Amino acid sequence: xxxxxxxxxxxxxxxxxxxxxxxxxxxxxxxxxxxxxxxxxxxxxxxxxxxxxxxxxxxxxxxxxxxxxxxxxxxxxxxxxxxxxxxxxxxxxxxxxxxxxxxxxxxxxxxxxxxxxxxxxxxxxxxxxxxxxxxxxxxxxxxxxxxxxxxxxxxxxxxxxxxxxxxxxxxxxxxxxxxxxxxxxxxxxxxxxxxxxxxxxxxxxxxxxxxxxxxxxxxxxxxxxxxxxxxxxxxxxxxxxxxxxxxxxxxxxxxxxxxxxxxxxxxxxxxxxxxxxxxxxxxxxxxxxxxxxxxxxxxxxxxxxxxxxxxxxxxxxxxxxxxxxxxxxxxxxxxxxxxxxxxxxxxxxxxxxxxxxxxxxxxxxxxxxxxxxxxxxxxxxxxxxxxxxxxxxxxxxxxxxxxxxxxxxxxxxxxxxxxxxxxxxxxxxxxxxxxxxxxxxxxxxxxxxxxxxxxxxxxxxxxxxxxxxxxxxxxxxxxxxxxxxxxxxxxxxxxxxxxxxxxxxxxxxxxxxxxxxxxxxxxxxxxxxxxx
Amino acid sequence: xxxxxxxxxxxxxxxxxxxxxxxxxxxxxxxxxxxxxxxxxxxxxxxxxxxxxxxxxxxxxxxxxxxxxxxxxxxxxxxxxxxxxxxxxxxxxxxxxxxxxxxxxxxxxxxxxxxxxxxxxxxxxxx
Lengths: 532, 127
Ligand SMILES: Cc1cc2nc3c(=O)[nH]c(=O)nc-3n(C[C@H](O)[C@H](O)[C@H](O)COP(=O)(O)OP(=O)(O)OC[C@H]3O[C@@H](n4cnc5c(N)ncnc54)[C@H](O)[C@@H]3O)c2cc1C
Ligand code: SF4
Prior knowledge:
The complex is a heterodimer of chains A (532) and B (127). By secondary structure, chain A is of the alpha/beta class. Chain A has a domain at 5-154 and 184-305 and 399-423 and 463-527: FAD/NAD(P)-binding domain, CATH 3.50.50.60. Chain A is 23% helix and 18% strand. Chain A is built from eleven helices and 16 strands. The longest helix of chain A is centred in the last third of the chain and has 20 residues, at 427-446. By secondary structure, chain B is mainly alpha-helical. Chain B has helices at residues 16-24, 30-44, 53-66, 68-82, 86-91, 115-120. Classes of the chains: A alpha/beta (532), B mainly alpha (127). At the A-B interface, helix 5, strand 4, helix 8 and helix 9 of A face helix 3, helix 4 and helix 6 of B. The structure holds flavin-adenine dinucleotide and iron/sulfur cluster. Flavin-adenine dinucleotide binds at residues 10-16, 33-36, 61, 84-88, 91-93, 95-99, 204, 235-236, 270-272, 275, 279, 463-464, 496-497, 507-509, 512 of chain A.
């Protein structure tokens, strides 16, 4: 048996890193177990001529396709939207596009304002100082003054608008619709020893330049300097409990595949909206027969993704093409509820630049705009380096039948049951997607684009994994309390995307990390009577 | 799928070097490509490669109609290699290098375009 630690964190991704860093100042003995490894910048695809191809291989966003040693399979046949993640130090931030919007004040009051889903037990104001703290730690590029948000500071200068931002921005102005340079976790200048973005344009296969704020280069080095221990290639199988119903530690497989028990005083789960319910359900015992912390039956329920649509067009003049961070601006014109649109809640447009030569061919041939055989080259040249558009990030409402459960048959390389996703797109989400495709087409038409293609929901866009261990004051209707502690197990905390009560219509990582800072702060403030 | 073009100065995807690159890079798609070849042979009622060019074109069309997922894999394995070949890159006026370390230039753009957005004022709901 290993010596006991004070705090054991499972998962070294976006939220696990934050908690490790925040708790480090307490001088408690903190250990993080992560199933993946460190990724070296020299290994990212943009280092080689096969940079686009590897996005479909060892750096695929799909764990099932990647199938690297760190990955666990996910049974997802019963979902039109497939999971995208990365397992390793930094978690999903290694592959994220670094679009960094916050939830809005109204997102925390969905029941009160719109009569659907539930209110959060906390509000925007509770998280505001943590959003700001996280922006400083990650180094967020932004332009202050966005009328879609309460005032907030910009840490670094905004991303370049580029030709894409200009052409779409002009169209938005013509229509009188909101748009603004996107907040981005990308270093637009050198920051805290991290390099400046040189517009490699391949952020979602990892940043070889080290300019994208991934937690392996932001929070982790500082946490490790403060003596947090991070053990990689250690996959946790289950959380154990003692006779008082408290968590006593975890059983995990180390880098050599040897089963070990790690005792701990406090266990913090940061495995994301799929990995966390999987671990809790795999921790079922005679004391907790439905899975750990699951007296409400809500562990693994209410899975929310953010259904995405893509609207892309082509221009006669050259656009930014594959150069520059993929994201450049956003629009929140259709964010707040307007029932005349035929749905409640709303969405964000992420304005995106173009595609590399391989993706141009794949999307052009899939849409039939580039033929096989005769005519291929002329058609290709009408599209290559000439595209721009947007994706819509639609709010998915929580629905109990959208679930992460354990697959009865399929196991990972260590023999641990894998998650099974069951998800159906709601009518509200369908209408929102349709609305976003219709309005997106109008925007591209106003921008002078031709050959506009709109499609949604995108199948391989399940990168936001939310809601499967939600927070709330009522133990019958939530898994954790308003500051992240499980109702059922008083020394067990959850800090990742599973906590979300509703999804909002924005990418979640800024909010996930602000929540993790808030939970860590709540722990620090209550250390004397944490388990009362 | 991708024929040579004298006008654009590019080889076809059946060029020896490109084809060798494709064959060596099948990676996670090896099984799907093998399955595609089996289906093409089945549609040809024998070896697909032995049929005339016109017949092959008709068979390929049937294959694409019947097995769109497999056809998409074939497209992917071909274009992943074709669109990194030096001759093709040159014809597209791309530099023969990976993105890192030099990166690229992106224009800053005209920030005054945001003036009307600012002028319209707050659009979020208080809560
Ligand atoms: C391609 C892509 C693009 C994205 N783009 C954006 C974007 O632009 N903006 C945005 O806000 N978000 C984006 N995201 C989502 C973002 O990455 C996630 O929201 C974020 O990383 C989630 O944080 P988390 O802490 O909940 O989990 P993760 O970051 O996923 O971390 C979980 C960690 O736990 C580890 N783990 C899981 N189970 C175990 C176990 N049993 N034992 C040990 N370790 C375990 C995993 O290996 C992983 O490292 C993107 C994601 C992807 C994949
Ligand atoms: S565009 Fe910038 S952040 Fe993205 S991969 Fe390139 S250098 Fe990194």
